[in-house]
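re: ur question from earlier - yeah i can do the single chain one, its not a big deal. heres the input i used so u can compare w yours
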Amino acid sequence: MRLRYVKCAGCTLFLSAALLASPYPQAGSQSNSADNTKVNKRDRAQSEPTADNAKNGTSDRELMRQIRRDVVADKSLSTYAHNVKIIAQGGKVTLKGAVHTEEEKKTIEDFARKRAGDANVTNEITVKGDGNGASK
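and the output i got, formated as tokens:
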């Protein structure tokens, strides 16, 4: 009986410690949350292309798929870069989102230009520059 009590107490202690060491911010603590408020306001404008109003034509879907495949296949890019928005409308491609470096921005633009042509790409990607590219 005593052994069962010790095991139960040990498990309770272990679980309590695990909860206290949670990677999620505790109430009252400061966190560096991503703030895309300005970008979201910009994207609400009717003149701004967004992913939900990309054309559903076969050629536009295929163009977006090819560019996305190229971007995701490049393992040197950060998670931010892998998640940029790629919007195709009538063969014209708009790139949006945030990346860590100018290099990533240029690499993604090059992928899009390779697939859509030089005159058909608008690059609206912003560089957040965290300095270390830690989320690769």
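The chain has a mean pLDDT of 78. not sure if urs matches, ping me
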